Amino acid sequence: MTPTSKWAIRGISILAYLSLASLPFIYALARLQQVTGHTPWEALWRFSHVYGATEALHYTLLEATASAALTVVIGLPIAWCLGRYQWRRPAFFRALFSVPFVMPAIVAAMGFLLLVDDGGLLHTLGIDLRKETGLIGDLAARTGWDHPGHFIALIFAHAWFNLSLMIRFVEPTVARLDPAWEEQIGLLGQGRTRLGRFRHLWWPILGPAVLCAASLSFLFSFTSFALVKWLAPFNNTLESLMASYGGSAGIENYRVDTSEIVMSASMVQFLILLAALYLTSTLQQRHSTRFSLISEGGARSARGPPNWRARLIVYSGAGFTLAPMLAAFFASFRVREGSFTSGMAPQWSVEGWRAAWSGDLSTMGVGEALGNSLLYAFCTLCIALPTGWMLASSIHALELQHRPRMAKALDVLTLLPLAVSAVMVGLGVLLGVLKTMPALFQWSFLPVLPHVILTVPFVVRVMLPAMRAVEPEWKEQALVLNLNPLQTWYHGYFSFIRGPAIVASSLTVAFSLGEFGASWLIVRAGSWDTLSVVVDQLMSRPKFDPLIQPAAMAAATVLMAITFLLFFMAERFRSEGDGGGF
Amino acid sequence: MKLNALLLMCVLLFAPLTGCLEQTESNDDCSVLPAGHADDGVLRILTYDITALSETVTDEFTNQTGIPVEMIKVDDAGGILDQMMLTKSAQQADLMIGLDNTYLPTAIENCLLQPHAATPVNIASSASAFYAGDQAIPFDQGDVCLNYDEDALSEANMTVPTHLHNLTEEEWKGKIAFPSPVTSSPGRAFLVATMEYFSYETEGDAMAWWTDMLANDAIITTGWTEAYETHYTGGYGEYTEGYIGDAWMTVSYCHSPGVEAFYAENYTHSTSLMLDHSSFHQVEYTGIINGAAQVNGANLFIDYLLSTDVNTNMPENNLMYSVLEGTDLPETNGYRHHADVPSVVTTMTYEEIDANMDAWLDAWKAATQQA
Which of A92, A280, A375, B25 could covalently link to A215 via disulfide, CB atoms 3.0 to 4.6 Å apart? Predict the structure, then answer.
């Protein structure tokens, strides 16, 4: 293929994806401008006058910053210990720490609520984060801080959610830290103390990876909705504010106030997240550069098996990761029963599983919903992987051609879907489809569209560093062997990025499985509900019927198990030296 | 360089905006619109998560008529109206089920419904009093009112309020949860009830009362679920995840204590606050969407929904009263016994709600912000 035709294909892919990713936002913004009579810039200026917006912005910035910091505090020691020693089953731990990242937020919220509730793990330790009595109550009374328990629960849940970012970015970097470097710097004056080694060796190498993971944690905590709704019911983030009022936004001559809320909040959120994404992109580029410089020496084998402190840290991390999931699993077997004489009490029962499987309480049973989920996930994979691959290779090609500005602009543009509120995307998709082809609403595969929009940025994040790490000499060596073009491509290029491609695929499938199609696409027929939609459907129903909650937890357990299995299988294809992120 | 990249992105994003600003077509004379979607023989129903419309119920309809049914589900009654408003130019559903009488006037005013040809008989006057036109027809009903935890009041040695003003007193500080009328239909219904309640008072008005309630640390939630499940101490919420239990009173249905008892072997410690004019008689409607493709199927489904077999099961299947004359809640597990029936409910008319709803919501927001 000639360079021109290669660029033509890349150009078409880039344009197609960017249109797909940006048009919903543009449609939504245009409609909101039409309804409110304000331009996007006027909406920004009016932000402070919008109902509840200033409080929401303060809370969002505070919780996102605290969540990112806590993610580093919890995740860094785990990533350090996991990368530094030779563990018997590293793939198991990596898979385990990755599962929370793709869990539907509502499942995570339920898991944490079970932990902080009366009789939950923390409550039995005397820490009441929900009703805020005891220690937490004292803290609130002494400091005048409203609902500190809810805030603490929320940032821990965000840290749980984002833990995999730290593991994925930092652990491979630690694993490649040559022990000889530490010995050498130890001989120098600046490396005699632990602090000295931190300043002059560890931080310069690990810093970009840590900051990259932290900035992504900030980003995902900033756009958090379900966790805020359930764990911090007295506060709003910008996203939850928009979700609360977004339903009636964008309608002419009706509830203009809600359109103003959504427009102003989405503009502020967009600009803040654009800056965060730019920072993330810069940090990831720096991380890739540093990562390619450090040795590939077997640091793990040189340090041998983990000591007791490393074990304690990693096992505690595993416990932290497992706790909410186990809580959800056990809750699927707890059904409340009541009687006129003794009141209500939860009993052990498999009735919740039976109800979940039969679909008596939802639009369909778990088996059928899982089938739909897998089909959507497969379709998403078929589109998102080649699209993300093409985008990543275009960015990398621009970098190789020494066009850094264009590469950077494209890199940030691929991340745009992460900066746009789900409410705006939902509204935009609806308006866009209405404008172009309303018949699409009856097409069962329409939910694949938002799944693709959401997952492509992650494919790019995984593939780009892997492509950067491929040495051009490898391809040249393959050419010397007199192989045909396909064989040259396979042996000189693909075989080096096969691992990240499988990781990207598993991530895409897992994201698609956990995605709430219903929240993204406003008009959609119910006969194609996915597993995560069934969980959401059950959790949203009034729970007078005692079987609803255990049925929701049973559906969530199936989702968790499938996701874990997927990551565990994908880990087998990840090479020791893979530092792709995620 | 960084600034340039950002500017480039902004230009790319906002430049095409002006091209999208076309006006949507209006239908001021409320004429029947052509189908907004292709008629593929499937009846599409726009609804919220109505438990009465289980797969068994819809399958039975398909068996009787040969018409397959597909559900388009939104969060709540407000979501149904929002959806119909947004897709006005190309409606994607044929039948709506679930708009209540606080939303119906807006739907009719905006020509979102078309006349139905269903011929139900035996609709109770309590259901048909609010609206008797041909654009919508009631399918279930119930009274929205304040529920309180009898045990909590008894343990705190508190008396049952005899006036809404009692709730602004110190002993109720932070102990009442209200779903917001801006985002919740029971919240909206209760706002209407307070408007009527204070219209009978010589002192104070509804908005001043709401300001006082917020000053008394009333809890405002996005929806009924958070208010009832997370905050209210009298309901099943204490057995669900995330329960806080800081509210001894909340907005729900007057028959909610009956539903509690029905699912808990006749056990409940929740009851309703029976104050004249403080409850709102909510009626939920079904109607054919203007722009429907399956008008015949929609008419048949209305008849099916109002048939004795389906509608008399509303108390068990949808936790609401049937609209058929001569029906009541079942006695099973104390359902009927624990369900309270207000003697004097609101008499707010269709016209009053139609004319004032937006202004009331704006006033409510201003009043609660003031606090």
Answer: A280
Residues of B in contact with A434 (CB under 8 A): 86-87, 89-90
Listed by start position, the domains of chain A span: 3-44+57-571
Asked if A106 and A535 count as a contact pair (C-beta separation under 8 A), the reply is yes
Measured distance CA(A406)–CA(A394) in Å, rounded: 10
In CATH terms, the superfamily for domain A3-44+57-571 is MetI-like (1.10.3720.10)
Domain boundaries, chain B: 37-141+283-332, 143-281+333-370
Q: Report the greatest alpha carbon distance in chain A.
A: 86
- Check A363 against B75: CB less than 8 A apart: no
| Chain B residue nearest residue A404, CA to CA | B1
Alpha-carbon span B201 to B365, nearest angstrom: 22
Spatial distance between the Cα atoms of A416 and A422, rounded to a whole number of angstroms = 12
Residues 395-424 in A contacting B (C-alpha not used; CB under 8 Å): 405, 408-409, 412-413, 416
CA distance A115 to A435: 46
On the 0-12 / 13-18 / 19+ scale of CB atoms within 10 A, A182 is: middle
Alpha-carbon gap: B28 to the closest alpha carbon of chain A (Å): 13
Residues 533-552 of A with CB under 8 A from B: 537, 540-546, 549
A contact test, residue of B241, B252, B266, B354 with most A CBs within 10 A: B241
For residue B202, the distance in angstroms to the closest alpha carbon of chain A comes to 32
CA of A107: how far to CAs of A114, A149, A532, in Å?
Answer: 11, 20, 9
**CB of B264 within 8 Å of any CB in chain A?**
yes
Mutate to test the interface with B, among A255, A416, A520 (most CBs of B within 10 A): A255
Query: Per the CB < 8 Å rule, is A113 touching B226?
Result: no
From the list A113, A254, A524, the residue facing B72 with the nearest CB is A524
Query: Could you give the angle at the alpha carbon of A565 between the alpha carbons of A560 and A566, nearest 5°?
Result: 100
CATH 3.60.15.10 fits B143-281+333-370, yes or no: no
The helix/strand count (H/E) of chain B reads as 15, 11
- What are the phi and psi torsion angles at B352 (to 5°)? -65, -45
What is the interface pTM, i.e. ipTM, of the complex?
A: 0.80
Rounded Cα gap, residues A244 and A257, in angstroms? 13
- Element holding A70 (H helix, E strand): helix A53-84
- Do the beta carbons of residue B95 and residue B288 sit within 8 Å? yes
Q: Could you say which residues from 41 to 100 on chain B have a Cβ atom under 8 Å away from some Cβ of chain A?
A: 44, 49, 51, 54-55, 70-75, 78-79, 81-83, 85-87, 89-90, 92
pTM of the model: 0.85
Q: One digit per residue, pLDDT tens: chain A, 582 residues?
A: 677 777 788 888 888 888 888 888 888 889 899 999 999 999 999 998 888 889 999 999 999 999 999 999 999 999 999 988 888 888 888 888 988 887 878 788 888 988 888 777 788 888 888 888 888 888 888 888 888 999 999 999 999 999 988 998 888 888 877 777 777 777 777 777 878 877 887 888 888 889 989 998 999 899 888 889 889 988 899 988 888 887 788 888 888 888 999 999 999 998 998 888 888 888 877 777 776 666 555 666 677 888 999 999 999 999 999 999 998 999 999 888 766 566 667 889 999 999 999 888 887 889 988 998 899 999 999 999 999 999 999 999 888 888 888 888 888 888 888 777 777 777 788 777 777 777 777 777 877 888 888 889 889 988 888 888 787 777 777 777 777 778 877 777 788 888 888 888 988 888 888 776 444 455 554 557 788 888 888 887 888 888 998 999 999 999 888 888 887 777 776 655 555 455
CB atoms within 10 A of CB A537: 22
